[in-house]
Amino acid sequence: MPAPSAPSAPAQNQLRLPLERHVLGEAVVVSDSNVEAVQVLARWPDGAGAVLALHGPAGSGKSRLAADWAERIGAVPLDGAEAALIDPLELEGRPVLLDRAADADDETLFHLINLANGGGGALLLVSRSAPRQWAVSLPDLRSRLDAVRAVAIAAPDDAVLSAILRARFAERSIAPADDLIEYLVRRLDRSAEAAALAVERLDALHRPVTRVLARQVLDAMDAARD
């Protein structure tokens, strides 16, 4: 990948964010759609409270960003409703990542938030919607969720989707032309999953990857979805 252009905002200059890097086997691309989340996670839990929420649409890359954070600081990864199987007291004083956080039950969320606020721990909640929008029954949990700082990540923009496509092609030793990438960006759904699927299906045909072939693959994907 060519070196990214110098960012203009002071905060971006301080962090010196790369355009693309590989995390846990997945490409993480920094652009306007996710730069705030990347910057916050690079510093957090310093200066942002013990509980933080990261939310955005499916395929936006929020789970990959969260997994990167969890590996970097040694957080305990939990997933949705399965978090109820863990004794919260075993997590006391430890950073925790809760993916699909909106699927966890009220009691589990309540205990995890209290543990994080008790000192020494941190809790990263990952979901499609912000905690303020979650349907909960416990009044005390409602007030705690409403107080959580929430950082949004948007669906991949052109820069993110282009870089994801190039990374996926590179994994398969395919060097696509620029106009093919531009064509795919215009046609694909805004998600990392859609990009990966398109590249997988193009590669499976074992033919030169051209716009004509890409059109056939995308038309087939659209027909299957309809």
How do the strands and helices of this protein lay out in sequence?
Elements: H1 10-15, E1 20-23, E2 26-29, H2 35-43, E3 51-55, H3 62-73, E4 76-79, E5 95-99, H4 106-117, E6 122-127, H5 139-146, E7 149-152, H6 158-171, H7 178-187, H8 192-204, H9 211-225
Parallel strand pairs: 3-6, 3-7, 4-5, 5-6
Antiparallel strand pairs: 1-2
Quick check: average pLDDT?
85
Fourth-level CATH superfamily of the largest domain = P-loop containing nucleotide triphosphate hydrolases
In terms of structural class, how would the helical and strand content be classed? alpha/beta
Oligomeric state of the chains present here: single chain
CATH architecture assignment of the largest domain: 3-Layer(aba) Sandwich
Estimated radius of gyration: 20 Å
Secondary structure tally, helices: 9
Order of helices and strands: HEEHEHEEHEHEHHHH
Strand order in the largest sheet? 4-5-6-3-7
Helix content: 40-55%
**How many structurally independent domains?**
2
CATH class of the largest domain: Alpha Beta
CATH fold name of the largest domain: Rossmann fold
Share of β-strand residues = 5-15%
User: What is the approximate shape?
Assistant: elongated
Q: Which consecutive residue ranges, at least 5 long each, have pLDDT under 50?
A: 1-27
Distance between the termini: 35 Å
Describe the main β-sheet briefly: 5 strands, parallel
